[in-house]
Amino acid sequence: MSCIERSLDVWETGPLWSASSMLRRLDDRIRDLCARAVKTQDSAELHNIFCELRAAMKEHIKRLRRLAVDFPKSQRRAG
């Protein structure tokens, strides 16, 4: 059975605080998935958790890249 990745893409351009709070929520989701992976003894559930974790980590990387690209633009507007 292959991993079906769910899109967690809820990125919206907006104020930095909203991007930061979205990253925090995704960080919490990743921490929760890691904790569940450590606790589970069921290999099928572990596979599902790893699929979700992989998708969440990809989304996290995507959001960080967007923040990095937009960072100089934010600094120019503020300064």
General description of the model:
Helix content is 76%, strand content 0%. The protein is mainly alpha-helical and 79 residues long. The radius of gyration is 16 Å and the shape is elongated. About 14% of the residues have low confidence.
Question: Short description, anyone?
Answer:
With 79 residues, the protein is mostly helical.
List the helices and strands and how they pair.
Layout: H1 16-39, H2 43-78
Relevant terms:
79 residues, mainly alpha
Report the sheet with the most strands, covering strand number, pairing sense and barrel closure: none
Fraction of helical residues: over 70%
Order of helices and strands: HH
How many distinct domains?
1
> Looking at the chains present, what oligomeric state does this protein adopt?
single chain
Name the average pLDDT: 78
The rounded distance between the terminal residues' Cα atoms is 52 Å
Q: How many helical elements? A: 2
The SS-based structural class is: mainly alpha
Q: Which shape, going by the Cα principal axes?
A: elongated
The total strand number stands at 0
Our estimate of the beta-strand percent is: under 5%
Low-confidence stretches: 4-14
The gyration radius over C-alpha positions equals 16 Å
